[in-house]
Design brief:
This protein is of the alpha+beta class. It contains twelve helices and 17 strands. Helix 3 runs antiparallel to helix 4 and helix 7 packs across helix 12. The structure holds one RNA strand.
Length: 427
RNA sequence: GGAGAGGUGGCUGAGUGGACGAAAGCGCUCGCCUGGAGAGCGAGUAGGCAGGUGUAGAACUUGUCUCGUGGGUUCAAAUCCCACCCUCUCCGCCA
């Protein structure tokens, strides 16, 4: 959500921003709702003032034992008028607020302008893709060969885009998770959070998944939704709070499973682990003072990159252009890891500064040293997507005979094991 | 799921229809005192929305709303009624 008073004074900036984002939006309707709302409130406030004054008079007169019949009738009259205006005001206000939830964030001035991902800008690359002296196989072949990934049974017990990890596959997933959490908590100063995997609609609205992206979410009963990312519970952790200045910046890291319907991506990445309805992710979330948020974004990005460096996986960092930017984000860097079988870089992390967009929706504020209250800036980024990290490891560390070398930093998490080989086969 | 108790400001906690955005204490801020950010003394200390003044988004000011949330009763609701949410205790169920 944007600062409405600012929106009122900066129409042109919003219109340009919406265009750069390829978003259609009827702002005029919002402005007229706002006008209505303000004049109704003024009307209502005036009547309420009158009612309150007269009502007090009745109190005094009654104590003196005087007749208040006429006055009471009069106030009753005013109260009826108030009710009518208040109802109108509430309806107008509700509509005005609801409509605002559909306006995306304004891209930061450093975001490249462009229609789609072709305009994204490569910021830097790290590591050299390995030269294979054989044709690198896709991870699903490797995984099935080692009997550590079972796609067929995943579909059988759930649906397509669900996978069973087995034996060393499950162990690898757990190793990656623990390695990442240890790195972020012990080296990068993040506090670990293990949140609920179901959240209510208020939380989903707070971070911007609702109302616009309802069809992307799995909805359960009782107003609960499966989280698509830890960003939702962890950012909303401080919803409706005023944080004291001295505890900022707050750094949280959180492992969660993530659940996404992936509606509208029917043809994409149908094979393998790249696009699943359920996947694991270690997330980084920050709450910071506004003036520091772009520095904090760079640091957060560096923290995520550190994981890939430690794993010795080649990657590049891409600054998303305005047309490719997520709804709530003011600026996003994607980290893309090299996938040998596809001979391309694929997204493995997305690091964003939301500025005060989410903070406004979720009402997350802070009090500075002078005692003044303002909205914090929120940031988050994957640190990293675990499934996709496993994909990158399987493919980049594969050997011609189908085994996979375990990256050095993961070996302590796999009881010293150096190589993934077929262990045993039940069937 | 059943029974009971409860939800008040940064915190503790008083308040059962009218002068209550709300006692008292703690905490915090400022001032006095002091060698001293210790003790003592004094003052201040919620947020949202709308309007006005303006060194125009600093400050000041007026009104209004907010005592878990939403309705209702009443001239008037923290206070009475209804529904829901949450917390605690006991029972049931479960891991």
């Amino acid at each position: 959500m944007l600062d409405w008073k600012w929106v009122r004074d900066n129409r042109e900036i919003i219109i340009t921003a919406l265009k750069n984002r390829n978003t259609e939006f009827d702002l005029d309707e919002l402005f007229s709702l706002d006008d209505q709302r303000r004049s109704l409130q003024q009307e209502a406030d005036l009547l309420k003032q009158k009612r309150n004054e007269e009502s007090k008079k009745i109190g005094f007169l009654k104590k003196e034992g005087k007749d208040t019949e006429d006055l009471m009738k009069n106030v009753q009259n005013i109260a009826e008028q108030i009710k009518i205006i208040d109802d109108k005001l509430k309806a107008t206000e509700d509509e005005w607020k609801e409509k605002q939830l559909w306006i995306p964030n304004i891209p930061h001035e450093t975001v490249p302008i462009g229609q789609d991902e072709s305009c994204n800008r490569v910021v830097r690359s790290w590591g050299k893709p390995r030269e294979f002296d054989f044709e690198p196989r896709p991870h699903w072949d490797i995984g099935e060969g080692l009997d550590i990934l079972d796609f067929e049974r995943g579909s059988k017990i759930a649906a397509s885009r669900f996978t069973v990890l087995k034996g060393l596959g499950a162990r690898l997933e757990r190793a990656i998770m623990n390695f990442m959490l240890d790195l972020h908590t012990q080296q990068h100063g993040y506090q670990e959070i293990f949140p609920p995997f179901l959240v209510n609609s208020k939380a989903m609205t707070g971070t911007g998944q609702l109302p616009k992206f309802a069809e992307e979410l799995y909805k359960c009963q009782d107003d609960l939704y499966l989280i698509p990312t830890a960003e939702v519970p962890v950012t909303n952790y401080h919803a409706d709070e005023i944080l004291p200045d001295e505890i900022l910046p707050l750094y949280y890291t959180s492992y969660t499973a993530c659940f996404r319907r992936e509606a509208g991506s029917y043809g994409k990445d149908v094979r393998g682990l790249i696009r699943q309805h359920q996947f694991n992710k270690v997330e980084l979330v920050k709450f910071v003072a506004p003036e520091t948020s772009y520095d904090e974004l760079e640091k957060l990005l560096a923290n995520a990159e550190e994981v890939l460096k430690a794993l010795q996986l080649p990657y590049r960092v891409v600054a998303l252009c305005s047309g490719d930017l997520g709804f709530s984000s003011a600026k996003t860097y994607d980290i893309e890891v090299w996938i040998p079988s596809q001979k391309t870089y694929r997204e493995i992390s997305s690091c964003s500064n939301f500025e005060d967009f989410q903070a406004r929706r979720a009402n997350i504020r802070y009090r500075n040293k002078a005692g003044k209250i303002g909205f914090v800036h929120t940031l988050n980024g994957s640190g990293l997507a675990i499934g996709r990290t496993a994909v990158a490891i399987l493919e980049n560390y594969q050997q011609e005979n189908g085994t996979v070398v375990i990256p050095d930093v993961l070996r302590p998490y796999m009881q010293g094991l150096e190589l993934i080989t077929p262990q045993y086969r039940v069937i």
